[in-house]
Amino acid sequence: MSTLIETIAAQQRAHSADNAAIRPFRVSVPEAELTDLRRRITATKFPERETVNDMSQGVPLATVEKLARRDPCCGVRLSRRDLLRSA
């Protein structure tokens, strides 16, 4: 019985590893959609600055504003580490 359980567990691990693999892909977005996205980001009204100097109230306003100034269509990938570093 334990052999069957071990076999099933091994198959599940292999399946999970296959699903977690990073595979290249392409995205095609119409230019009109990108233009609209840029317009909406530019028109964003930001809240007041947070009242504390830590992350307890979420991502700092300065970080959000900095990200909003970037071109959302340039393909830059940001990780959580990048977001925290710019805080």
What does this structure look like?
- By secondary structure, the chain is mainly α.
- It has a domain of 57 residues.
- The protein is 53% helix and 0% strand.
- It contains four helices and no strands.
- The longest helix is centred in the first third of the chain and has 19 residues.
- The radius of gyration is 21 Å and the shape is flat.
- The termini are far apart.
Task: Provide key terms for this protein.
87 residues, flat
Overall shape: it is flat
The overall pLDDT average reads 76
SSE sequence, one letter per element: HHHH
* DSSP strand count: 0
**What percentage of amino acids are in beta strands?**
under 5%
How far is it from the N-terminal to the C-terminal residue, by CA? 53 Å
Q: Can you give the helix content as a percent range?
A: 40-55%
- Using only C-alpha atoms, the radius of gyration works out to 21 Å
List the helices and strands and how they pair.
Elements: H1 2-20, H2 31-42, H3 61-69, H4 80-85
Compact summary:
The protein has a domain at 31-87. 53% of the residues lie in helices and 0% in strands. It has four helices and no strands.
